């Protein structure tokens, strides 16, 4: 089309050329021919680009022979067919895998949540892989680690290997997330990683759990071993016998700090595909676990965990200086933390 127009104009000008001032006209013709030439060239280049792109698409179609056509097209960015370097997915190579990351804070129920998730035959959540500093040193070490996990080449007791339908890990907010959030969000959005936020509503209870857990790191209340999670009521009772003293001077700012950290993370990661869960809701309402499985598009199963909650009952029983804490928080925005019974 473009060529035809150019030739037509060229012909017209060439026919008229000899009749008037030849130098001027020749210049005009020359300019026209050059402009047309450049235009045609650019059209040709575009077409070549297009044809290589088409080839690319063809290759992709060939490689993704697995695609199930009954799957909603809008799901495509979230479906992966990894080819692990360390094993073959064999008969499961056409089971699509979804990628996820649990973003949480210490002592917010993420360990318990992970055991629930891992009780699903098709889900693998590989723990706190970024607790190791070298893996979160910089954006490229983070990317390398993520690639390995999402390619199913990361081995933990949670690995389900061939028949994984959802693979991920948990990532604490103090493990390089705020520092590298731009690159991480980019990675998540480019690769279609779904984010599960798991937070605790009662930040005072979280504080008690954090202090008690770090106390036990050296006190080792369970026959000389430190445990962050327990599997029996006796163990839970032993651990909860220690009552922390809360620092009243920094109490308000500490609670505020936790709240701000959560809000900031939600803001930074809002463009990802995500679901927000609260520990308290999961404890009270097991239907929330159905939401999670639906979010990860897993076949629905009953999820189970052997973990036992450590600090049960009213908070007043778990804080040494309860009366002062009660007084400090009365009439503040955090008063609600005093009453909630979980
Ligand atoms: C990133 O960190 C890794 C591991 O510590 C290191 O080997 C690598 O050189 C670093 N890369 C950049 C670009 O700083
Ligand atoms: C879940 O795992 C089972 C057993 O390994 C397998 O047969 C099934 O195809 C998997 N389901 C999905 C959706 O990947
Ligand atoms: C600790 O030791 C006691 C008695 O020796 C035993 O009954 C209990 O099961 C042990 N607990 C753990 C967590 O090993
Ligand atoms: C309590 O917090 C304040 C302010 O952060 C700090 O200066 C003080 O040392 C803390 N007290 C204890 C006993 O840790
Ligand atoms: C339990 O969770 C489900 C799913 O999120 C929700 O629809 C339902 O209203 C919840 N029930 C209660 C009692 O909160
Ligand atoms: C907290 O303090 C208020 C008033 O100072 C009191 O009425 C309430 O019983 C206290 N709560 C607990 C659980 O001790």
SSE arrangement, N to C: HHEHEHEEHEHHHEHHHH
> What CATH architecture do you see?
3-Layer(aba) Sandwich
**First-residue to last-residue Cα separation:** 73 Å
Name the ligand types.
2-acetamido-2-deoxy-beta-D-glucopyranose
Tally of helical runs? 12
Instruction: State the shape.
Output: elongated
Q: Strand content of the residues, in percent? A: 5-15%
What low-confidence regions span 5 or more consecutive residues with pLDDT below 50? Answer: 1-19, 50-63
Strand runs, count: 6
Mean pLDDT: 84
Please compute the radius of gyration using only Cα atoms: 30 Å
Largest sheet: 6 strands, parallel
Estimate percent helicity.
40-55%
- Class by helix and strand content? alpha/beta
Count of folded domains? 1
* CATH class category name: Alpha Beta
CATH topology: Rossmann fold
Describe the structure in your own words:
This protein is an alpha/beta fold and 342 residues long. The protein has one domain: Rossmann fold (3-Layer(aba) Sandwich). The chain is built from twelve helices and six strands. Strands 1, 2, 3, 4, 5 and 6 form a six-stranded parallel beta sheet that branches. The termini are far apart. The protein binds 2-acetamido-2-deoxy-beta-D-glucopyranose (6 copies). The site of one 2-acetamido-2-deoxy-beta-D-glucopyranose has 3 residues, from helix 8. The site of one 2-acetamido-2-deoxy-beta-D-glucopyranose (NAG) has 4 residues, from helix 10. InterPro entries: Nod_factor_sulfotransferase, P-loop_NTPase.
């Amino acid at each position: 089309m473009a060529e035809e127009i150019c030739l037509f104009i060229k012909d017209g000008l060439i026919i008229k050329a000899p009749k008037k001032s030849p130098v001027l006209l020749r210049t005009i013709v020359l300019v026209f021919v050059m402009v047309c030439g450049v235009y045609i060239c650019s059209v040709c280049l575009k077409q070549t680009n297009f044809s290589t792109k088409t080839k690319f698409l063809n290759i992709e179609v060939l490689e993704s022979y697995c695609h199930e056509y009954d799957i909603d097209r809008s799901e495509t960015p979230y479906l992966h067919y990894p080819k692990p370097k360390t094993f073959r997915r064999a008969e499961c190579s056409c089971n699509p895998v979804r990628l996820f990351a649990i973003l949480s804070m210490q002592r917010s129920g993420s360990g318990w949540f992970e055991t629930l998730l891992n009780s699903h035959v098709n889900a693998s959540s590989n723990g706190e892989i970024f607790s190791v500093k070298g893996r979160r040193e910089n954006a490229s070490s983070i990317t390398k680690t993520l690639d390995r996990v999402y390619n199913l080449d990361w081995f933990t007791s949670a690995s389900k290997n061939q028949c994984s339908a959802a693979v991920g890990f948990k990532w604490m907010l103090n493990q390089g997330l705020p520092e590298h959030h731009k690159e991480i969000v980019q990675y998540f959005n480019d690769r279609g990683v779904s984010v599960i936020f798991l937070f605790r509503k009662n930040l005072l209870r979280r504080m008690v759990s954090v202090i008690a857990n770090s106390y036990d790191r050296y006190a080792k209340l369970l026959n000389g071993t430190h445990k962050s999670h327990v599997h029996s009521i006796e163990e839970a009772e032993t651990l909860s016998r220690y009552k922390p003293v809360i620092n009243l001077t920094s109490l308000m700012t500490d609670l505020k700090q936790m709240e701000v950290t959560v809000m900031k993370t939600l803001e930074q990661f809002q463009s990802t595909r995500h679901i927000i869960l609260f520990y308290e809701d999961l404890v009270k309402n097991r239907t929330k676990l159905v939401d999670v499985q639906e979010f990860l598009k897993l076949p629905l199963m009953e999820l189970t965990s052997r973990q036992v909650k450590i600090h049960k009952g009213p908070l007043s029983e778990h804080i040494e200086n309860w009366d002062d804490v009660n007084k400090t928080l009365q009439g503040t925005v955090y008063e609600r933390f005093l009453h909630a019974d979980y």
